[in-house]
Amino acid sequence: MDDIEAELSIAHDFPEDETTNQFKKPVNLHFYTDDKGVHTTVSFFRSNRRCLKRIRDAMLLHNWQEAAVYYNSFIQSLEALDGKETKSTASEITWRLGTEILRHLPNASAEDFNALYEQLKHNGTTNFSKICLEHCFHLMLSGEIEEAKRQLSIGESWRYGNFSIAQGNTKKIIHAYSGFLDYLTLCEKKSSAAATDEASSNHEMLRDFRQASVTLKDIITQPGVWDPFVLSYINMLKFYDDEEGSLQILENYAYNKEFPNNPNAHVYLYQFLKRHDAPPDKLIGSLRILRTLVPSHELMLELCSLLLYTSLMSDLEEALTISMDLLEFSSWKCDIRAWSCLLNIMKIFKEKKCIETVKKEWDARRPLWFSLHFRSYIGRKDMAENVSLMKIKRDVLRVVGLYTEYYKMALKAEKMAESKTKECTAREKKKRMKEKKKKMEKKTKKEKKKMEKEKMKIEKKKMKTTP
Question: How many CB atoms sit inside 10 A of residue 137's CB?
Fold first, then answer.
């Protein structure tokens, strides 16, 4: 809906017509004309502003059929007007509105989508390549890979003066998705040929591999953020056991200074190194760079673990800093893994008799940490929701020798939890005893009935034998 608002802002602050709120009346698209009766750009903006408001209201109320009717009127007005400037201004909003409405119509078919996209490509030329790309996405979701390739080919080869030059980035993305579709085709053939031993020597697959690899490699070596395409290319190289080529691509993607800072690039490199049993120094180096970009990343816990095993005091101090930094982010403040990691590091310092290092780091953060983690209302919340977390936080306070109100609340919570567990175990014991008693009673009842039946049988026999 923001796009509609943007389009409405293009049409200047014209006075609203009284019929704007009459939702059921048709929109008179050619109501405003000049002295000669010609529909001017101003008349276009005025009439279509009203039409766009009707479309917006219908979409907000999920009246998709009604929105489609008004949208058809809007399209007709665009086709009736010859002004290139007006068409180019409205082309993107027209394309986005049309696809959104069509997606929500219950009786919309694939042919309707294709017809809409083809109509929109020629209703203003500024977004031709973008519409081809979105058409490709729709075809991909429908499983029509070959038709999607054809649309990308059309978008890539399209030329229209300076407009095509201005869409250089879009053309680059189209080129990337062309390689991605070749990769998808290769994956399908791999899955169908998985049962045979000659999959890797299949000439058709090798041809698709070369075609996809040339396109993807050409794209991912250019500066940019190419995450899905990098992963696709790495998977292709993995299929052909090219570990060296994969490492080279990932290192270039992560460390090339011409590329924008991208945390995912370092994540992919770290995961690759970890899978291939790289030495700890390389793993630590990769995660250290990631920390400079995203200090709250979940892999920081793995970085702490790696630093603990180096047996160097500097690395241990770094692990302490990383773990405490992590807990200063709101997304981590109640995470048991992060608190357990910090407690483990503190215990190692205590074993090494270097607790002063921990206290020094603690003193520097003390004002922030008390307000962030150890206030009374936080203690009440932890007591009600997460006693296990409260115990770990209490042990952290014990290591640094601070017996605060939160510490007392944690002890109280632990005693309450213990009494509850005792009560629960007592209840369970009583319950088990009752169940056992009931079973015994049932058993005795059955035995009594059995004894009575046997007595009855004996008496009947006696009765028969006596004359």
Answer: 12
**Burial group, residue 287, by CB count within 10 angstroms (0-12, 13-18, 19+):** buried
Taking the C-alpha atoms of residue 287 and residue 326, their distance in angstroms, rounded to an integer, is 14
Distances (CA, A) of 278 to 248, 273, 303: 14, 5, 14
Alpha-carbon torsion, ordered 77, 79, 84, 87, to 10 deg: 60
Q: What is the 3-state secondary structure (H, E, C) of 271-321?
A: HHHHHCCCCHHHHHHHHHHHHHHCCCCCCHHHHHHHHHCCCCHHHHHHHHH
Q: Give the span between the Cα atoms of 376 and 370, in whole angstroms.
A: 10
* For residue 315, pLDDT beyond 90: yes
Q: Among 107-116, 199-208, 335-344, which stretch is predicted with the lowest mean pLDDT?
A: 199-208
- Residue 77 and residue 48 in contact, taking contact as beta carbons nearer than 8 Å: yes
Q: How far apart are the first and last CA of the chain?
A: 105
Q: Report the alpha-carbon distance of residue 121 to residue 378 in Å, rounded.
A: 58
Angle between helical axes of 145-157 and 128-141 (0-180°, round to 10): 170
pLDDT digits (tens, 9 = 90+) for 123-180: 655 667 777 787 788 778 777 888 888 877 777 776 655 555 556 677 788 888 888 8
Opening angle at CA 42, ends 40 and 43, nearest 5: 65
The span from the CA of 79 to the CA of 101, in Å, is 19
Query: Hey, how many other C-beta atoms are within 10 angstroms of the C-beta on 119?
Result: 15
> What number is the average pLDDT over the span 324-341?
94
Q: 28: phi > 0 → left, psi -120 to 50 → alpha, else beta; which?
A: beta
* Contact by Cβ (8 Å): 184, 155: no
Q: What pLDDT score does 168 carry? A: 63
As a whole number of angstroms, the distance between CA 309 and CA 344 comes to 13
- At residue 78, the pLDDT reads 67
Give the rounded distance of the alpha carbon of 456 from its chain centre.
76
Residue type, 97: L
Q: What is the pLDDT of residue 82?
A: 52
